[in-house]
Amino acid sequence: MTDFTIRTADQLPMLLQAFRKQAQLTQSDVAMRLGVTQQTLSALERNAKKVSADRLLELLSILGVELVLRQSNDSPTPSTSPDW
Asked: What is the value of pTM for the model shown?
């Protein structure tokens, strides 16, 4: 299993397309499972920064990819707990 570090939304389109191809799925296959048209999926792959988190997670699930969030070593450590 290979990890990919994503720092900007501009990196997503290439990875989403690569994951889809690795899963041997066409845009039409994924679009049908996602409940959208092939044209909508194509636009989503090209413009991933505009997709909702919910839709992105659903797409990743279809592609057999999991999202892992990890604090980077170079990020500042907050002095207090987040206000969730």
From this structure: 0.78
